[in-house]
Predict the structure of NAD(P)H-binding protein.
Amino acid sequence: MTKIVVFGASGKAGREIAAVAQSRGHEVTKIGRNPGVQAAAEIAAGHDVAVSAVADLSRDPAEFYREAAHALVASGAGRIIVVGIYTLMETAPGVRVIDSPDFPPEYRPFSLGHAAGVEVLAKSAANWLVMSPAGMFGGTPTGTYQLGPVNPSDELTYEDFALAVVDQIEHPTHHHTQLGVTSQ
């Protein structure tokens, strides 16, 4: 049994991740609202895995995601898994979705905020993984998923995404990277 804390457990992705982890017999601490950065570090301390499925749309995204990543690293949790976004995935070597000339400028700050959090993780010694769901949540759960490149038109259900996250908790095959997830 793994001791897991899920930040953002009141949201769709976090709720599904917590439910799948509990159904597999893991001890899950569910945190629904932003407890504050210092409290998050204290809550995550002593857990084998800290999952972050959080957003605070009232704050500057870069500031929020940097602080959240620092708190997770400072907690000393054995593994950190962050729910990312597909806009940071590469469409070609060194070219992310966000780098496209037709990427909507109004979504750029939020995407760059996520990137700032990933940079904090990348500079740390923590065991981390960013799992980025496909461009569109929807469809019928398949009970399967695919890891790898994602496209804006790819679909993924919250249920299938949760399976992918919990599988990486139970059998960690990817470390120190961002990984795309789509339904099969």
The radius of gyration is 15 Å. The chain is about 35% helix and 25% strand. The mean pLDDT is 93. The chain has one domain: 3-182.
